[in-house]
Amino acid sequence: MAGDVGEQPRYTLTDDGAFLRLRWAAGVTIGGADVRSTTAAVTAASTAGRRPLLVNIGLVDAITLDARQLLIEDTCSLRTGVVGVDEVGKVLTAFNYRSATPSRYFTDEADAIAWLTGRSDAGETTSREPEEPLPFRAWMEDGIFTVEWDPGASVTTAVAEALVAAAAVQNPSTCPPMLALNNNMVSLASEALEVFAWQLDVAALAIVGAEGDRLVATYYKQLHNPPYPTRFFGSASEARTWLSLGRKR
Predict the structure, then answer these.
(1) What is the pLDDT of residue 84?
(2) What residues contact 86, with CB distance under 8 A and at least 6 apart?
(3) Given this chain, do its domains 2-125 and 136-244 carry the same CATH topology?
């Protein structure tokens, strides 16, 4: 598959089995239209679910501001390994440290493939990947995106972004309601709450927990005013009933 402008392909996308490979042509300035095109191509090639993506940027000339923002927000792949020829490529893609998708930069393609396929932990992180294991489990159950936090969890910005990515992976085609089992959550960074308010694509949020979790829910609603209905409940059964019915604020 190729993205063309006139006679010259701007990129090619191939299926390497365990991952997809996106290769950019030399001298290209990547713009917003390019990113939309590649995102659609990667999604179309991933009918069974999101897959790892190897991106060879080679001698790309530049990446526009709107393209950078789209790449930061993009979640069409499970993880992205960017391969460049030198430190120039690393500088060119440095903006990606805020990416919602785990991303790393490599100058050796073999190292990138090993990381993409889970055979090594090489490369330089260019996204905000949490250093510690994620303090939550997430799954779809009866049409509800359910998240169970570890008891006493503290939520950083990186963890919040990982949850947003998990929500996109679990249910990429619709905007489901979400059930959060907080289990006496200790703290949430202010930036993490902003991520939940403006990046979490859910129809409604029901929070279940102890009294301290009620305070967290109240603070979140009052200060961050999320665009989806949000309520606190003392039991998961009450929360699920609300999510399945009217979901009024």
Answers:
(1) 86
(2) 107
(3) yes
Superfamily, domain 136-244: STAS domain (3.30.750.24)
**What are the residues whose beta carbons fall under 8 Å from the beta carbon of 22, sequence distance 6 or more?**
11, 12, 13, 38, 42, 53, 54, 55, 56
C-alpha–C-alpha distance, residues 158 and 88, integer Å:
26
List Cα–Cα distances, 19 to 16, 53, 225, 238, in angstroms: 5, 6, 39, 42
- What is the structure's pLDDT at 149? 93
List the chain domain ranges.
Answer: 2-125, 136-244
What does residue 8 show for φ and ψ, rounded to 5 degrees?
A: -95, 115
What confidence score (pLDDT) does residue 125 get?
58
For the segment 79-107, the average pLDDT, to the nearest whole number, is 77
pLDDT at 190: 83
Please tell me the pTM assigned to this model: 0.52
Cβ–Cβ contacts within 10 Å for residue 37, how many? 17
pLDDT value of residue 246: 63
Q: Name the CATH superfamily housing domain 2-125.
A: STAS domain (3.30.750.24)
Residue 46 CB partners (closer than 8 Å, separation 6+): 20, 76, 77
1/181 Cα distance (integer angstroms): 43
Position 248 scores a pLDDT of 58
pLDDT for position 163: 83
Give the residue-averaged pLDDT of 190-198.
Answer: 86
| Closest-CA residue to 148 (of 136, 157, 158, 156) | 136
Tokens representing residue 129 in the block: 């990947």
Cβ atoms < 10 Å from Cβ of 146: 22
Task: Look over the chain and give the mean of its residue pLDDT values, rounded to a whole number.
Answer: 83
DSSP state, residue 142? T
